[in-house]
Amino acid sequence: MGTLKVKEPVYPLLSVLSSVTVLVFGLVTAKSVAASVYLGGVWLLFLVFGYWKSCLAVLPFAIVAGGIFCGITYALSKDATTTYAAANRIVAVCVAVIPGLALEPIALIRNLSGLRAPRIVTLGMMIALGFFPLLRSETVRIREAMITRGAGNVFNPRIFHRAFLVPLVVRLVNISDTLALSVGTRGFDPKDKNYTVYREVKFRLRDAIFALLLVAGSVAAVVV
Amino acid sequence: MKENEKDNVVVNEKEDKTNTGTQILKDIKDAEQTDDRAEENFFPEGRTVEKCKEGAIFQPFRIKDIVFLAVMAAITLLTSSVMMLVVPLLTTVFGIAQLVTGLQLSVFPAIALSKVRKTGSLFLTALFTGVIQLFMSPAMFVSNLVIGFILELLVIAIFRGYKSDKAVFFAVALYNPLSLPFNYVYNKIINEAAMTAVAENAPWAAVGMAAAVCTLAVVGTLVGLKIAKELKKAGVLKK
């Protein structure tokens, strides 16, 4: 995710809303020709607004998944319209994911904190969003430990439970305890409402233009 | 003379300190006794503040609880990413997404709720999981929140919180299977014929898949509760 980040991202909450908008309008108009034009237009809009890395990253997935998805749909329905709609659906998912791929979790948290969202929610979101790389490394470590101990095949349910699942949960509990202590020692208080956001995320003219173009495109896709 | 005066001053200071210390200890004891009396008056059946806090339906979340729920939400989501592999089959096999995520969505939430037995824990886990899903599927986000909320209400009404393992089992075992009817209704509303047709064209297959999803959810919840019990015994999973 880090390699796909944008220098000047769109207002974080707006990028979440743009994902939802693209997905909803993409699915609703999936059967019409306007859907392809709309999705292509949104892809270009993201490209122009600096999301080129994410735009390019979703292309291979869109081609492979779209190919499989359309193939299965055509094999079952023998209908070109249904297959076309299926292709639009998978493209809609791929385009909707673009802002999410480029969005830094901390930017979203700053944005929500600036809007005085409950601190419980922002803390939980920050941990959930930023925990993936750590989880991956923990999983790899436990797998390595299993190999070192000669624990056997991980696909055996008993071995999986005893040698993988239980150690993983123990590690997770320990990590969460350390993390909680760390958060506590930094003076984080879930009830404290008087806090300062040092780097506030502001809504700029650029964001307004992005929102206007997206809304105009979405409405046009339904009307046309 | 001066030395004697100094000695007197030191002795007086020491006495003062001892007196002050004794006074403070006395004050603390008095305050504790007053608190105990107040507690006895407030909770007449011999219950203490702690016991009453434990018995309350709504308890405040500590940082520790939120962090643990968020970590469990992250692992649930990470292991559920296998769902991406079955996306092409969504319009062919009813409930395939729920089937492949059945174990993950029951084992980890069961462990999370076994540790954080507070009303709202399931809803918070659903919220943390849903936030990331929002970019891929708003339907899943809405489904998570609505189902989490409904289950919280049911748990309050039936069990008055997650104090017993039965309540945890009830909430977690229903969490994933409830998304089947939700998704069906959602696809009906947005007129996603391909998705609803899967259930309508082969209703018996849909019933079979629903049964399989329910079975997996029950098995996963039992496994989660078993792991939680083991960890509690080992002293890893403390409240």
Number of helices of chain B: 11
Class by alpha and beta content of chain B: mainly alpha
Radius of gyration of chain A: 22 Å
Overall number of structural domains of chain A: 2
Structural class of chain A: mainly alpha
Write down the overall mean pLDDT of chain B: 77
Integer count of domains of chain B: 2
Characterize the main sheet of chain B.
none
**Unreliable residue runs of chain B:** 38-50
Enumerate the spans of chain A where pLDDT stays under 50 for 5 or more consecutive residues: none
What multimeric state do the chains show?
heterodimer
Q: How many DSSP E strands of chain A?
A: 0
Kindly state the number of beta strands of chain B: 0
Give the overall form of chain A.
flat
Percent range for β-strand residues of chain B: under 5%
What percentage of residues of chain B falls in helices of 4 or more residues?
A: over 70%
Distance between the termini of chain A: 36 Å
What is the CA-atom radius of gyration of chain B, in angstroms?
A: 28 Å
- Principal-axis shape of chain B: elongated
**What is the typical, i.e. mean, pLDDT of chain A?**
85
Biggest protein-protein contact in the assembly: A-B, 53 and 45 residues
Annotation keywords:
heterodimer, A: 224 residues, mainly alpha, 9 helices, B: 239 residues, 2 domains, elongated
Walk me through this protein's architecture.
The complex is a heterodimer of chains A (224) and B (239). Chain A has nine helices and no strands. Chain A is mostly helical and 224 residues long. Chain A folds into two domains: 2-104 and 203-223, no CATH class; 117-185. The radius of gyration of chain A is 22 Å and the shape is flat. Chain B is mainly alpha-helical and 239 residues long. Chain B has eleven helices and no strands. Chain B has helices at 2-42, 49-55, 63-79, 96-100, 104-115, 121-133, 138-159, 165-175, 179-189, 193-201, 203-234. In chain B, helix 5 (104-115) runs antiparallel to helix 8 and helix 5 packs parallel to helix 11 (203-234). The longest helix of chain B has 41 residues, at 2-42. The radius of gyration of chain B is 28 Å and the shape is elongated. In chain B, 41% of the residues are buried. Chains A and B meet through helix 1, helix 3, helix 4, helix 6 and helix 7 of A and helix 3, helix 5, helix 6 and helix 11 of B.
